[in-house]
User: Fold this.
Amino acid sequence: MTTRVLHIFPKNDSMTANYVTMLTQALGDRIASTATDDLQEAKHIMKEQKPDILHQHGLIAWASQLELKTTRKIMTPHGQLTDGQGVYVVIARSDIEARQIENNPRIEIVRNPLVTKTVRPEDTAERMMRIYQKVMNSDVLTFLSDNSRQAMHLLMKVALCGDRQWIEGKELPAEPQWQLLYNYTWHEGVSALLDRGLSLMGLQIPPHTTPVSYLPEVYERPASRPKASIVELLKEVERQMRQGRLELMLLCDLHQALRHPSLDEEKLLKELEAEKLITLFTSVLEILKEELLLDEGYMPCVPVNNRTTAQLRTSLTNHLKI
Assistant:
């Protein structure tokens, strides 16, 4: 599907208007581009066309009045200072401009062919295309269809349990979004489990590429903690939940620990009571049931769906959010 981009720019700024015209022409039909310097027209385009990306050029007083919803915002300041709040990336036109806005967490440099002969319009368009794609490759969990999420849940369970019999003859839903699934699971550190699930189901691993995405400043690719106890894993869940970002890998480790044949459930519950983790544990069990299809037979107590459970869901959703 062609990425839809709405360009907005200030009125009575001919240089910026010329840049937007040059860029949209150079991008051609590879991007579904629209452009305006008018608030009401921008609101109409946002409502009717629902662009994937809002590309703001320069400082615009009315830009904050646009409801982004699922639209992702990027900015080319055109020599004006910006703090980059609420944007995926700030695009400088030169190394000098990049240093002037270096307080922004994500900066790209795309040179302007209207002011320098070192690049051509098609070079600028190619560079901008890669940035647009990188934006759309970021935080892809929000783009996953119900079928894709269901496929991920089934494959993760098969991989963690080591046999397809654990999904009781269920088949993968039609047309999962494989590239998005690999994008998400790679950044969560569990793409190898996706491959294992497919192999155990006798299915061919689809072609995919390593994603290039924008990531939160605090992001570190998750690593498994195979030697950690359930109490230790739950304390890490508690810490991550307080920070508002929960790793899927951590849930996989808990899934494995709860299925360990040597687990003494009665002893575990006493330890959790002593550590005041039992309330969190019941909510984690609900998340494990939803995300990794943990069977009730491996739950030492009844899962609970409450405010803590909702907080865990939100933290998991926000792990890769910019």
In short: Residues 121-136 form the longest helix (16 residues).
